[in-house]
Design brief:
The structure holds 2 protein chains of 2 kinds. By secondary structure, chain A is an alpha+beta fold. Chain A has 2 domains: 130 residues, SH3 type barrels; 105 residues, SH3 type barrels (Roll), CATH 2.30.30. Chain A contains 6 helices and 18 strands. In chain A, the strands form 4 sheets. In chain A, strands 1, 10, 11, 14, 15, 16, 17 and 18 form an 8-stranded mixed sheet that branches. In chain A, strand 2 and strand 3 form a beta hairpin. In chain A, helix 2 runs antiparallel to helix 3. Chain B is mostly helical. Chain B has one domain: Hydantoin permease, CATH 1.10.4160. Chain B is built from 19 helices and no strands. The chains are: A alpha+beta, B mainly alpha. The interface between A and B is large, with 49 and 44 residues. Chain B: Its main location: membrane. Chain B: It is found in: Membrane. Chain B: It is a multi-pass membrane protein. Chain B: Keywords: Membrane, Transmembrane, Transmembrane helix, Transport.
């Protein structure tokens, strides 16, 4: 265990990546959001997908439409998004690969059964449904009200100890040194927040070292739009209430991203 | 022959951008009105699409990620959704026009009204997308589109005044206003760099299961296909400049646009060119319909593609089918297919930066590309084109309104 724990930026390396099933390379879904177990040392517990994960991240009218349409078709009392435990993730690269015999999302199954299988020449529809016995263990995707969504931490206003606006959250830094998940791998712990001085949306990866600011014109432009970028460790954050982030220390005492 | 077959993806993609129904007529109109004075725009377009198609092909080969996957991944869900809305709208409009174009080519061949040909064309196109293997599809329609090379023969047979054509390169005609000239410049650039070309090209690379070993194939596709498409579109303009400009006629239909070939090569040439027009527009039908499925599926992370059996990509095939039905209905309203592409081209110009920006960013990201990141040359060109596309995106719609779409 001497090698250093893996570090990821949630928005840059995880959110919105393609999820692929390890066994047969089937494209399953996108990482629409991440489920976080709150606490003193919060960590990522699951990948969330489907309209109920994407809708809240989109926000506005399209997000609301997406969420409500999905609710209409769901039977559960408190429906939640499609959920993939982080413990089955085997690789995080240009795609996120997951182990196990995971079912497709409901829309794909419904369309296969009711539309595509009725068109002549539709091969492959019979592979769709798993045998009855595995269907019974299918998890119900119910909402977990005690958990937190990582997407909700992005784009929040950050205030200093005396209440002045310090900046905007642009990404969440994750370090893989959290508690063991299903006794197979360590969880990604939320180590801190990347904060940009000006509200300018995403960083597109240009928060990383200067060697990666290419093409240089674009790198310079994105960094200029954001102003100074600093990094707040989790214990430098006092509270996360009211859709805002309150820092426990002054802006000047935060680390610069150049030291990361 | 084997080498030629390996580049049919590039040819099919490029023909959908440079010589689809809208461009076939637009090139002839531009040639008749402006002579060769807009040829430089086509050259700028060829270089631009080569730069970005090369990047997207390289990304597909190294990381197996197609373009719309990257759009969502790097731009985030909101900007991605804006791009998806715009691209999908343009795709369906263009699809409608291409179905109409293929039907018009059949009208030229048979004399039967094109509206009668629309349903069969749409049905056959859908059957091809539903059942025919990607490689077979790409080879048949890529190679058949090569029949358009007859325009080069025709130009040579017409024996134009080469000196006159060369002078036109730098001298726009005096009787056309500057805004009209710029409007056509944007329409030509938008046509050369339409977003569905990179959606289709990079997804096609994934469909063909490209890996790092196929980087040479990917490049060959780019550097054969797109320049060939561009040269054809220049030749069409030159033919029109030779035949129509001296008599101050303006070709406004497919039937008139193929006249220079009949004049230069005769009846056989006319037959060949109609085959070429049909193959190019039918190929563009496939390209735009599949692109609508690719972009929607890749945004939401659905299983897509023809490399799995149809029953295993239900949402993708339902999207393609629905797009074909909507487009067919649209064209059956007797709306003019050529007008439709003129408008969709200008709207696509506005969506261009949102598509090419993430491609440029990912092509520089070593997490994806390892040591295959962009070199300095690609980055300088890529940055230059990003600035150019931003200008074009801002200017497109105001220019369309100011010139009443180039009239």
């Amino acid at each position: 265990m001497s090698e250093p724990a893996r570090v990821l930026h949630a928005r840059l390396h995880l959110l919105d990546r393609q999820v692929v099933r390890e066994s047969d390379d089937r494209l399953l879904c996108k990482v629409d959001d991440l489920e976080v177990q709150p606490g003193d040392r919060p960590y990522v517990t699951a990948i969330l997908s489907g309209p109920l994960a994407l809708g809240p991240r989109l926000g506005g009218l399209p997000g609301w439409l997406m969420t409500e349409t999905d609710r209409l078709f769901r039977g559960e009392e408190r429906p939640g998004p499609y959920r993939i435990e982080m413990s089955v993730v085997t690789e995080i690269g240009s795609a996120v690969r997951v182990a196990g015999r995971r079912q497709d999302l409901a829309l794909e199954r419904w369309l296969t059964r009711n539309v595509v299988s009725r068109i002549p020449g539709a091969a492959g529809t019979e592979e769709q449904d798993a045998p009855e016995s595995t269907l019974r263990v299918r998890e119900r995707w119910e909402d977990r009200p005690d958990s937190m969504r990582l997407g909700g931490l992005l784009g929040r206003t950050v205030r200093g100890p005396s209440g002045e606006v310090a900046g905007d959250t642009v990404d969440v830094r994750l370090v893989q040194d959290g508690p063991l998940l299903a006794e197979v791998q360590q969880a990604f712990r939320l180590a801190g927040l990347l904060i940009a001085r000006r509200r300018a949306g995403q960083l597109f990866g240009y928060e990383r070292g200067p060697g990666l600011w290419r093409p240089s014109l674009l790198g310079a432009l994105v960094r200029r739009m954001h102003g100074e970028i600093r990094y707040a460790e989790w214990d430098q954050i006092e509270s996360l209430d009211d859709e805002e982030v309150r820092l426990g220390v002054a802006w000047d005492r935060l680390r610069s991203t150049a030291d990361l | 022959m084997k080498k030629l077959i390996a580049v049919t993806l590039g040819i099919l993609t490029a023909f959908g951008g440079f010589v689809d129904i809208g461009d076939l007529v637009a090139n002839a109109v531009v040639g008749a009105r402006f002579g060769m004075s807009l040829a430089w725009v086509v050259v700028v377009g060829i270089i631009g699409i080569c730069v970005f198609a090369e990047m997207s092909g390289r990304i597909a080969a190294v990381s197996q990620r197609p373009v719309f996957d990257l759009v969502r991944e790097r731009m985030g869900p909101r900007a991605g959704l804006v791009n998806l809305g715009a691209s999908f709208f343009i795709n369906v409009l263009t699809l409608a026009a291409e179905i109409g174009g293929a039907a018009l080519a059949l009208e030229l061949a048979t004399g039967l009204n094109y509206l009668l040909w629309v349903p069969p064309v749409a049905l056959v196109a859908w059957l091809v997308m539903w059942r025919v293997k990607f490689e077979t599809m790409e080879r048949v329609f890529g190679l058949a589109g090569l029949a358009l090379v007859v325009f080069i023969v025709a130009l040579w047979q017409l024996g134009p005044d080469w000196g006159e054509l060369t002078t036109q390169l730098t001298r726009p005609p005096q009787d056309e206003g500057v805004p009209t000239y710029l409007y056509y410049a944007i329409a030509l650039l938008g046509g050369a760099m339409t977003p569905y070309e990179v959606f289709f090209f990079s997804s096609g690379g994934v469909e063909e299961k490209w890996t790092r070993k196929d980087l040479v194939t990917a490049r060959a596709n780019v550097f054969v296909g797109f320049p060939l498409g561009g040269v054809l579109s220049l030749t069409i303009a030159a033919c029109a400049a030779t035949v129509f400009m001296p008599v101050e006629a303006e070709p406004d239909s497919l039937g008139q646009m193929v006249l220079p070939v009949a004049e230069g090569v005769g009846k056989i040439g006319l037959g060949v060119v109609i085959l070429g027009v049909f193959a190019a527009t039918f190929g563009a039908t496939l390209e735009t319909a599949l692109s609508s499925g690719y972009s929607l599926s890749q945004y939401f992370g659905w299983q897509w593609g023809k490399y799995v059996v149809p029953g295993r990509a239900a949402r993708f095939h339902v999207t393609v089918l629905a797009s074909v039905i909507v487009a067919t209905a649209l064209i059956l309203t007797t709306i003019d297919p050529i007008k439709v592409t003129e408008y969709s081209l200008v709207f696509s110009a506005a969506a261009l930066p949102l598509t090419y920006l993430p491609v440029l960013m990912i092509a520089n990201d070593p997490d994806y590309m390892g040591e295959k990141v962009n070199g300095r040359f690609s980055n300088v060109l890529g940055s230059f084109y990003m600035v150019l596309l931003l200008v074009v995106a801002v200017a497109a719609i105001p220019l369309m309104l100011a010139t009443k779409a180039g009239q």
